[in-house]
Amino acid sequence: MIRNMRTVPDAVFKSLADPTRRAIFERLVCDGEQTVRALTDRTHVSQPMVSKHLGVLKHARLVIDRPDGRSVFYRADPQGLAPLVDWMKFYRAFWAGKFDQLEDLLNRMDQ
Amino acid sequence: MIRNMRTVPDAVFKSLADPTRRAIFERLVCDGEQTVRALTDRTHVSQPMVSKHLGVLKHARLVIDRPDGRSVFYRADPQGLAPLVDWMKFYRAFWAGKFDQLEDLLNRMDQ
DNA sequence: CCTATCAATAACCATATGGTTATGATTCGC
DNA sequence: GCGAATCATAACCATATGGTTATTGATAGG
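Above: the input entities. Below: the structure tokens describing the complete assembly.
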């Protein structure tokens, strides 16, 4: 349980720490599978940078790539957020009954 | 709603990206309020570094400090995780019914 | 084929970041 | 009051990181 917190892949936290990278991830979530080109056209950074960011996201298993011809399509992978959810679960369990505010927040997640 | 994703404070994501900082935060969660000294004794880094990390966590509103004499006690603030929860909520809403795995994970958060 | 397009790599740069030791500012115990 | 303890800041260093502009390696199209 507690050991879980240590085994959480750093990669996920590090990946989501950069706003540009989050923006790319959000774009993939909202607009679905897209090529590097399409993503580049919608960010303010260069194509190589987009490729780099996608590489980081891929390493963290937050996105999945699908090469097709000379294009490479990327899509968000929901399972990639599992480590984050597990990490939150730990705090929820620990704080249960102690801090009502967090409890409320997590309850509202279930609306 | 979608705008929420942009207004999420970077500070929280950036704070949690560093493993040493997460370790300090986890220590505060598990063991409760502690002085800088106590925290320093339980990490492998120097006292100034612990102070710096605590400064970052404090800026992200993940911890609260309480000076007392020459000691300064720090404790974790549950509300500080709210931005993270909101961010997750967005993905839950977006993926609801689409990706069962994430749905299951988030449902299990409510046990 | 020859060229244009696409994505990844290389080479490079500036700055942010995590770490250190030294110093300062308070406060406590004697 | 004086020395020791506690924490923050300063000064500094090495490396990681986000960014750029070439360049390369494929593939698609005329």
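Note for the figure: The radius of gyration of chain A is 17 Å.
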